[in-house]
Write a structure and sequence with these properties.
The complex is a heterodimer of chains A (319) and B (321).
Chain A (H helix, E strand, L loop, with lengths): L7 H7 L8 H17 L2 H31 L4 E2 L7 E2 L1 H12 L5 H32 L3 H5 L5 H19 L1 H14 L3 H5 L1 H29 L2 H25 L11 H13 L16 H25 L5
Helix pairs in contact in A: 2-5, 2-7, 3-4, 3-5, 3-8, 5-7, 5-10, 5-11, 5-12, 7-8, 7-10, 8-10, 10-11, 10-12, 10-13, 12-13
Chain B lengths: L8 E10 L2 E11 L2 E7 L5 H8 L7 E6 L2 E2 L3 H4 L2 E4 L11 H11 L4 H14 L15 H13 L5 E5 L7 H16 L3 E5 L3 H7 L2 E6 L2 E7 H7 L5 E7 L2 H8 L5 E11 L4 E8 L2 H15 L3 E6 L4 H9 L6
The chains are: A mainly alpha (319), B alpha/beta (321).
Chain lengths: 319, 321
């Protein structure tokens, strides 16, 4: 076919030609636009505010704990009531410490990330369809896949968006609490608690990888919000009820607790924090071994990767 | 001697299987520029061909290349712009933001992405309406936004899937002019459309797909000429239709002559519908006959020398897609 003569517009348009970056930058762009889509939803901000409240509770709780330890250690504490009585301050401090766990210990970070994880779980259930499901549901993939990226870059972009969400609500606030406690305790805290720092990072990484993969799988499979929430609830809430019924109710092996992936992540986190297995709370629940929980997490993640790999190829298969 | 540049798009014996179903069957196609229309019935393999051309699918057999690079590679995709036919996308996002996102996806940094976004929005006539959410757009506006995102990377190959559907006549004319302008800049356009009449206005170079195979490629006339066994219908307004009919029935190319029951002008002319095989030879002989017999021809019009009719012949039906 003959080439047609160029028009003056050509000169203006061609001037736009510049070097472009590789396809992995496209993943970052996908993550950015996904987060922007999510930020436009009120539900996201409501859940994020709730997560922030939990963080603030721990943030000021640590101050309060130290404040109380300093104040009540100087004299006896007299309680009110008809018959007033005195309590030894060290006993009161120990009671508060055991109840609240806001003392920069492994329990503090374990409890904080466990609690925050619940909000993350609910948020991801809502976010899954907005971030990923809608692309499949409304057939928007051609917009992405016709650009200079591949399917893996697309999935990596979506995974990055989820990872940012998870870390913004677990790992980063956890690190903030760690830094805060060093300020209100002594500088030696940072040196003596390196294991805790690594534990926060490792627990955060476990939450990020597992939740990201699980969300990618469920969102690409179900696409719509309501089924996604139902499956998500079944995976994290029902499995907990089932494992409790099997172990605590029927008296079966504690290994049945491995069904609860949330519990598995918690056990992995406690392992990373260096918590003694015998001191795990609640003390009346015998837990499976750390390495068993870790193995289950790894298997779940591998299954998710296998499914996603198959899903990526399945775009080419007519059902 | 200077080497010829690689074709913009090249399909080499490409087959695509979806499990046990074949979507495309040993297709060979070469595009070097200009506008090519892609027509075919539903299920003929148009979408598969477009998705292979834009690197969204890998061929089962054969090779698809853009300027010599596998269409699947991101370097090839960087040379391609794709305007899909689906209209459901990012309803909550303003058009401008959507185009900027797509520009970032192409690997441009923010200032460049913004610059390109404004340029393409201006080009498709959406610069003043791009801040509204896509959910509030008409179908025509959606088409323009889709086209804008396809133009972001200044593509050498622009693949357009049903780009004219849902656009009003004025907008359609503007889009046709835009496509012609893009072709004039040296871009290669592959346009899939059911709107054959509009496609004919845009280009006479078409590729006709049927049952996963390229049935014909070329200008509509070339394809029509290849269909020697399919008679061409020609209407001839002549002063003496009976005499002309008597002359024509003896010709080997003519397979039928009908009188059209209407009076032309002030009654001095009648009309004949002639069905002839091998149109080229027929017209050569007919010209000589008109001169030698001193016939008074008022009008001569091929009735089915259109993409629609050609498609109908090739598909063995009405030509409806």
């Amino acid at each position: 076919m003959s080439r047609l003569p160029s028009s003056p517009q050509l000169l203006r348009y061609r001037s736009l030609n510049v070097a472009r970056r590789g396809p992995w930058h496209g993943s970052v762009a996908i993550a950015r636009s996904s987060l922007r889509l999510l930020a436009g939803r009120k539900m996201f901000w409501a859940l994020y505010a709730f997560s922030l409240l939990i963080f603030l509770l721990y943030f000021f709780g640590q101050y309060l704990q130290v404040f109380l330890e300093q104040r009540v250690s100087e004299s006896l504490v007299r309680t009110g009531g008809v018959v007033g009585r005195t309590i030894r301050p060290d006993f009161l401090v120990k009671m508060l410490r055991d109840a609240l766990h806001m003392d920069g210990s492994a329990d503090t970070f374990g409890d904080f990330m466990w609690t925050e994880g619940y909000i993350v779980m609910v948020l991801l259930a809502f976010a899954g369809s907005a971030i990923i499901g809608n692309d499949f549901r409304f057939n928007s993939l051609p917009f992405y896949l016709s650009k200079p990226i591949g399917r893996r870059h697309y999935l990596a972009g979506k995974a990055l968006a989820i990872a940012v969400l998870v870390n913004a609500m677990t790992t980063i606030p956890g690190l903030c609490l760690f830094i805060e406690y060093g300020f209100i305790d002594t500088w030696d805290y940072y040196v003596n608690s390196v294991r805790l720092l690594l534990g926060i990072l490792a627990y955060g990484a476990a939450l990020t990888i597992t939740l990201t993969l699980l969300l990618l799988v469920t969102a690409t499979w179900l696409r719509r919000t309501v089924p996604l929430i139902m499956v998500w609830t079944a995976a994290f809430v029902m499995s907990r009820l089932v494992q409790r019924w099997l172990v605590d109710g029927l008296g079966l092996s504690p290994r049945w607790r491995l069904l609860d992936i949330w519990n598995d992540m918690y056990l992995f986190g406690q392992w990373c924090f260096g918590t003694n297995h015998l001191l795990l709370r609640p003390s009346n629940q015998i837990q499976p071994e750390y390495h068993e929980a870790t193995a289950v997490m790894i298997v779940v993640c591998l299954l998710c990767v296998l499914y996603l790999n198959r899903r990526v190829r399945a775009v080419e298969v007519v059902k | 001697m200077k080497d010829e540049p690689q074709p913009v798009l090249l399909f080499e014996q490409v087959s695509k299987w979806y499990g046990p179903v074949i979507g495309l069957n040993q297709v060979t196609l070469e595009l070097r520029g200009g506008i090519t229309g892609l027509v075919g019935a539903n299920g003929s393999g148009k979408s598969t061909l477009l998705r292979l051309a834009t690197g969204q699918l890998k061929p089962t057999l054969g090779r698809v290349t853009v300027r010599g690079v596998d269409a699947w590679e991101w370097q090839a995709k960087a040379l391609v712009g794709y305007c899909p036919d689906n209209d459901s996308f990012y309803e909550d996002m303003p058009g401008r933001e959507f185009v900027v996102s797509m520009a970032r996806l192409c690997g441009f940094d923010k200032p460049e992405a913004l610059r390109r976004t404004e340029a393409v929005l201006e080009r498709v006539g959406m610069a003043d309406r791009a801040d509204r959410k896509i959910g509030g757009y008409s179908k025509g506006m959606r088409q323009r936004i889709k086209l804008a995102q396809a133009l972001l990377n200044d593509p050498q190959l622009l693949v357009l899937d049903e780009p004219l559907s849902g656009i009003d006549p004025i907008g359609r004319q503007e889009m046709l002019e835009l496509f012609r302008g893009l072709a004039a800049e040296g871009k290669c356009l592959l346009v899939s459309s059911h709107e054959l009449e509009e496609l004919e206005k845009l280009t006479d170079h078409v590729a006709i797909l049927t049952r996963g195979r390229i049935a014909a490629v070329g200008t509509v006339s070339q394809i029509r000429d290849m269909l020697d066994d399919q008679p061409l219908s020609i209407r001839i307004d002549v002063s003496d239709p009976r005499r002309l009919a008597a002359l024509l029935v003896n010709r080997p190319e003519v397979v039928g002559v009908e009188f059209e029951p209407k009076v032309i002008g002030n009654g001095t002319h009648g009309s004949l519908i002639v069905r002839a095989r091998n149109p080229r030879r027929f017209f050569e002989d007919f010209g000589k006959m008109v001169v030698s017999e001193e016939l008074d021809i008022a009008r001569l019009e091929p009735l089915d020398d259109s993409a629609h009719a050609v498609l109908g012949y090739l598909l063995g039906g009405s030509g409806k897609t």
